[in-house]
Structure formats: C-alpha cells, structure tokens
Write a structure and sequence with these properties.
Blueprint: E1 30-36, H1 38-41, H2 52-61, E2 66-69, E3 85-87, E4 104-106, H3 108-121, E5 125-129, H4 144-162, E6 167-171, H5 183-191, H6 197-217, E7 223-228, E8 242-246, H7 253-259, H8 261-264, H9 275-311, E9 315-316, H10 335-350, E10 355-356, H11 372-384
Parallel strand pairs: 1-2, 1-10, 2-5, 5-6, 6-7, 7-8, 8-9
Antiparallel strand pairs: 3-4
Helix pairs in contact: 4-6, 5-6, 7-9, 9-10, 10-11
Length: about 375
C-alpha cells in the first residue's frame, strides 16, 4: 500500500497568529559572545583567556548567557585530549584581532574539556562552530562533506563527556562556504557564479544532505550554518534548525565608497598605516549616513525574519552589524561602531531575533570588554524583551 507523502513546502505568511517560538526555546533569549578559537589559542600564560574562571564569570557579569565556540573538530581528538596542539599562529600579522597571531602549543583537548566543564557549572549555554582550517596539522576541510565527517566522531565523543545539555546548536561551518580551503572560489568556477541556478542547486543539495546525516545521528541537537547576510540564501530552501546570520556595513557600497574598506582589506593584519584614514572616514560616513545604513540593514533583517517565521527557523546573530575588522589602537575611534551596536539591540528586538550580539569584539583582550555597564545595559534590554 502506498501512503501519501507530504511535500516539503513553505508558506508565505504575514505572521504566525501571535505564536512566538522563542517563548518555548531554552534559553528564551540568547545574548552571545563570539570566542571562536581564542578561548583555546589565547589560553597560554599571560594571555587574555589564561584564567577560565575569570573570563567565564566576566561573561555572566556582563549579561551574556551564550558562548559561541570553535572546538576545532577537524583537529582535536576528545578521545585523546592530552595530545599537544601546535600551530604557527598567523605569521606577519601583528594586528590580527582574534585567535592568536603568534605561534603557540598546548594540550588543546584538555583545555577544551576544562573550559566546557567550568561553563556548564555556571549554567552558561554554548554553540559549537567550525572554521574549517587545518589547525595544528588537522584536516583542512575542502567542502561541507569534509567538515561534516570531522563533526561525526567529535560529537560522538562530546556526547559521552558532556551530553548536549545547554548546547543551543552546532554550526557546521562558519560563514559557509568560506573558510573551507578555497571552496567558495572553486564553486564559482564550477557552477557558473554565485546564485546561478546550478550554484543554488548544488549548495541546497550539499547543505541539506549534510544536515540530514547529522540529524539522523544526533536527533537531540540543532544543526545550523552561519551565513553572510545576503538575502540570496533565502531562495535555496535550506532546512536549517537555526540561522546565524552575520550582517555587516561593508554589504552597503555607499559605506565602502566612503571608507575605502575593500581597498584597505589588502593590508589587514599586517600594518597600521591606514588606521587613521580608515577611522576618520568611518566617523565621517557614520555622521551623515548612519540612518540610511541602518534602514538598509533593517530591510535585510526583516527579510531573514520573514524566512524565520515562515520556516520555523529561529533567527540569531553571533557576529555582526558594523565593521568585521577593528582593533584597539590610538588611531581607531570606536565611537561609531559602538553607536551602531546600540541600535542593533533595538532592531533585534523588533524583528524577534532569538539571539543577538552587539559586535565582533566581545572578548577579554579588547578594551570595550572592561565597560561592564555598557554591556549590561544592552544585554538587559534584549533579555527583557
């Protein structure tokens, strides 16, 4: 006997009749900090993450309840956590703001276990996200299937050690399809350009296939991809369990024209010679264009919020809003970027985001981390929404 099979369709609706799925999620609101690999690579003596107890308590003190972590599943073997992890850092990059620019080594698996146990003792939530590089001689993933194969044994060991209590989701690949050993560039050549019918069909099949495999193995886990805030993703019918969307000012050509950000990205990490001009341009641009930039960004946020409602995919961001590159430096003025963060919480509330972060620099090595009142004012506002 043949049974009818429901087709996977999506409704276009004006809303969900007053039902808010966030009220049934745990946590009900997510205030996130992106600690990527830094919580491991900056754990050596004298580093910003040397004292796990201190930094975890500081996160809670500032009102953050969720940590976004890269546990390096392509490198760390939780079955052998004592293995020494060695990496050359980011050579010739003294102005690299995250992770660690200098070489380092240590038992990263043991550090990961220690950190996670302390975070769970504080009842902090977390997400796991892979950047995909071959850290310390690990697998250098070249596509989503490669990194998915790394996740399978890693999550099997994770489940034995910690279960998935307080794990809000697993992000298969950070800002997919980037950070996968040139995968984006190869896909452009092979499938005729981004957003072409062939490109869309390939990535829809790959993403949904990898998600299906992991959901079958770990039905108790949400699986996601973090994505750039390009509304083209909405047309791919990706069956995500959560959507972590990264919105940035450089998506607006008017911002790029005024700040010369695309030209300056060629010098990122290596020199501070452009910092003064870049900062002055950002301040001037922000003074006259901020409402216009915000309007454009809100329209994208509204489009993803509609996808979230129509498809039952909770919407969040763990890195976002203004510049994806900044650093503490006498020539870089943070005022414009912090003002952008101030309005981001208002927009996140209006568009019913499940998770929000004020900016990319919620790590203890940045000066703004010391401003407890600033963080607490914004996190309290979002958590009360």
């Amino acid at each position: 006997m043949d049974f009818p099979v429901q087709a996977p369709s999506r409704a276009k609706s004006a809303g969900t009749g007053g039902f808010d799925m966030r009220d049934w999620l745990i946590p009900r609101r997510m205030t996130a900090v992106m600690w990527d690999q830094a919580f491991l690579t900056r754990h050596m003596k004298g580093d910003s993450f040397e004292d796990y107890d201190r930094v975890l308590n500081e996160a809670a003190e500032r009102g953050y309840n969720t940590l976004r972590l890269d546990p390096m599943p392509q490198t760390i073997d939780l079955a052998h956590p004592e293995k020494i992890f060695r990496d050359r850092g980011v050579p010739n990059s003294p102005f690299f703001p995250w992770s660690r620019p200098e070489p380092f080594e240590g038992p990263a698996g043991a550090w990961l276990i220690e950190f996670t146990e302390k975070a769970l003792n504080l009842n902090l939530f977390y997400s796991l996200s892979a950047w995909g590089g071959g850290w310390g001689g690990g697998v250098n993933a070249g596509n989503l299937h490669d990194i998915t194969e790394c996740w399978k044994p890693f999550l099997t060991e994770w489940k034995k050690r910690f279960g998935f209590e307080n794990c809000v989701y697993v992000d298969l690949s950070n800002e997919f399809p980037f950070f996968l050993n040139g995968y984006f560039e190869r896909s452009i050549e092979e499938f005729g350009g981004q957003w072409s019918p062939e490109w869309n069909a390939h990535f829809k099949q790959e993403v949904n296939g990898c998600l299906r495999e992991l959901r079958q193995m770990f039905p108790e886990v949400r699986f996601a991809l973090s994505l750039h805030g390009d509304v083209g993703w909405i047309n791919l019918d990706l069956e995500l369990d959560a959507m972590d969307i990264h919105f940035y000012a450089d998506a607006d050509p008017r911002f790029n024209d005024r700040t010369l950000f695309p030209e300056y990205t060629e010098k990122l990490f290596t020199t501070d010679s452009f910092f003064k001009d870049f900062s002055d341009r950002c301040m001037a641009s922000h003074k006259i264009m901020a409402p216009a930039y915000r309007t454009r960004q809100r329209a994208k946020l509204a489009a993803f919020a509609s996808w979230s409602r129509d498809c039952g995919i909770p919407l969040l961001t763990t890195e976002s809003w203004a510049s994806w590159y900044y650093i503490d430096h006498p020539d870089l003025n943070w005022l414009w970027m912090l003002e952008w963060a101030e309005w981001s919480v208002e927009d996140a509330i209006e568009y019913q985001m499940w998770g929000w972060t004020p900016h990319n620099y919620c790590q203890p090595q940045f000066e703004n981390w010391k401003d407890i009142k600033w963080h607490r004012r914004l996190t309290d506002k979002f958590l009360r929404s």
